[in-house]
TrEMBL record:
SMART domains per UniProt: HDc
Domain of life: Bacteria
CDD domains the UniProt entry points to: HDc, NT_ClassII-CCAase
Keyword list, A-Z: ATP-binding, Magnesium, Metal-binding, Nucleotide-binding, Nucleotidyltransferase, RNA repair, RNA-binding, Transferase, tRNA processing
Protein name from the UniProt record: tRNA nucleotidyltransferase/poly(A) polymerase
Keyword Ion transport: no
Domain HD/PDEase: from-to ranges: 255-379
Molecular functions per Gene Ontology: ATP binding; metal ion binding; nucleotidyltransferase activity; RNA binding
SUPFAM superfamilies named in the record: Nucleotidyltransferase, Poly A polymerase C-terminal region-like
Organism for this UniProt entry: Catalinimonas alkaloidigena
């Protein structure tokens, strides 16, 4: 039997919990993710404890004996309590057994033994426990060969997977999430049960599904998780628009790339350079409108004209349906979907500085993320072709940096504002003010004037003169 007494004593949390359990006279164990990650040599700051008795009473006893004031959060309806101490988040629950009704993933809970508690766990690798009891302190309790599954890199349910997933269908998302995070396989019987029970996912709230999906997106190689979702029949229930990208159509011997697998490759490419969840969502959605815009032309072959514009309109609808945040994150993804073709188009030698200025201004604070997405979007089975496109893209990035350095257009704000226009010509807020602002902006982006008050204000006065607008008040240069 494996024993981790020495490891437990190195961390002050466990002796404190063991002492609180001894004072209460309850069997207590550390269970689940912390034990799994200990064996995988992964850091983990969240520690779950199970006791054969009241988890709330154990947590209260611990909070009373810890040095200083340690606030305790009690959730009576669930029989759990949680406290933070130093860098650790500790959660306590009494051992329990569960039964389920078909219409809900919320269990009927009864008091139980450690064995009952381990049986209700989702996967063998999460059903591991270590004793904190005096006679067996540090002993590993592994009734379902979770250690073996860790060595085999296998996700498997402790009991019949059909029952496990039917009872709590969110566990299907968790199975794929753990496989994707840990780069584990899913046991064949467990995977078959995913396919059999896929429709049960419909009783799970969208918020819980997205919580797991985001963790899959943030895993080291997210395409693995999405391929599992696809083949298990879960992706069509979560994100059917992504599945519509799958497949290759051929006409007159001309085929297009499989945009589903292309999208997953772009997602993986982004994951190699960024942990930004919303940049990864942009990778998932950048070509989402290709199925709706796909056309075949005998001369041009397959085209997807306007997919960036339609995709931009689709993003808010998808975010709303999937219960993703309708805030600046959605707008960031929307912006990247709208602009993702623009940098590639700048590869041509005859592209003007004004086109580059417009891209910098339109992308604004999302420019760096946009460039990461566009670089990731260069995929091909031909490595030489990828290398050639990346070399061209390097030239684009260099030109963008040169223009940015010269014109400082990031977070673009015209030096001559709408307020200046209204004061100069005595105008109220109106369409005329908006038109003058637009002409100033165009002059700056075309390189006719610099974005300074000294250049912009005389240009404004000329525009006013052309429109027959008398100057009501000549403004001084605020920088003079």
């Amino acid at each position: 039997m494996m024993n981790f007494a020495a490891t437990l004593r190195e961390n002050p949390v466990f002796p404190h919990v063991a002492e609180a359990a001894r004072r209460l006279g309850v069997e207590t164990y550390v269970v689940g993710g912390w034990v799994r990650d200990l064996l995988l040599k992964r850091p983990c700051k969240d520690i779950d404890f199970v006791c054969v008795g009241s988890g709330i009473a154990l947590a209260q006893t611990l909070a009373d004996q810890l040095p200083g004031h340690v606030p305790l959060n009690v959730f009576k309806n669930f029989g759990t309590a949680m406290l933070r101490w130093d860098e650790w988040e500790l959660e306590f629950v009494g051992a329990r057994k569960e039964s389920y009704r078909s219409e809900s993933r919320k269990p009927i809970v009864e008091d139980g033994t450690l064995e009952d508690d381990q049986q209700r766990r989702d996967f063998t690798i999460n059903a591991l426990a270590i004793s904190l009891n005096e006679a067996t302190f540090g002993d590993l309790i592994d009734p379902f060969d979770g250690v073996g599954d860790l060595k085999r890199k296998m996700i498997r349910t402790p009991l019949d997977p059909d029952i496990t997933f039917s009872d709590d269908p969110l566990r299907m998302m968790r199975a794929i999430r753990f496989a994707s995070q840990l780069n584990f396989d899913i046991h064949p019987d467990t995977f078959d049960a995913l396919r059999t029970n896929a429709a049960r996912l419909d009783i799970v709230s969208q918020e819980r599904i997205i919580g797991e999906l985001n963790k899959i997106i943030l895993s080291p190689t997210p395409s693995y998780g999405f391929k599992l979702l696809y083949h298990a029949g879960l992706l069509e229930r979560i994100f059917p628009e992504l599945i519509e990208l799958a497949g290759v159509e051929t006409v007159d011997g001309k085929g297009h790339k499989d945009n589903f697998y292309h999208t997953l490759q772009v997602l993986d490419n982004v994951a190699e350079v960024s942990d930004d969840l919303w940049l990864r969502w942009a990778a998932l959605m950048h070509d989402i409108a290709k199925p709706a815009t796909k056309r075949f032309d005998k001369r041009a072959g397959w085209t997807f004209h306007g997919h960036e514009d339609l995709g931009t309109r689709m993003v808010p609808k998808l975010f709303r349906r999937m219960k993703l945040p309708m805030n600046e994150h959605m707008k960031f993804v929307q912006k990247l979907v709208r602009l993702h073709l623009r940098p590639i188009a700048l590869v041509k030698d005859e592209v003007t500085d004004s086109a580059i200025r417009r891209l910098i201004v339109d992308a604004d604070e999302a420019l760096d993320a946009l460039m990461q997405l566009c670089r990731a979007d260069i995929t091909s089975k031909n490595p030489q072709r990828v290398r050639r496109h990346l070399q061209n893209f390097n030239k684009v990035e260099k030109r963008i940096l040169e223009v940015e350095e010269t014109d400082r257009l990031r977070n673009f704000q015209p030096a001559v504002t709408g307020e200046h226009i209204m004061q100069t010509f005595g105008l109220p807020p109106s369409r005329q003010v908006g038109e003058l602002k637009s002409e100033l902006r165009e002059a700056i982006l075309e390189g006719h004037i610099k974005n300074t008050f000294a250049d912009g204000y005389p240009f404004l006065l000329k525009l006013g003169e052309q429109r027959g607008l008398p100057v009501q008040k000549q403004l001084p240069d605020p920088q003079a």
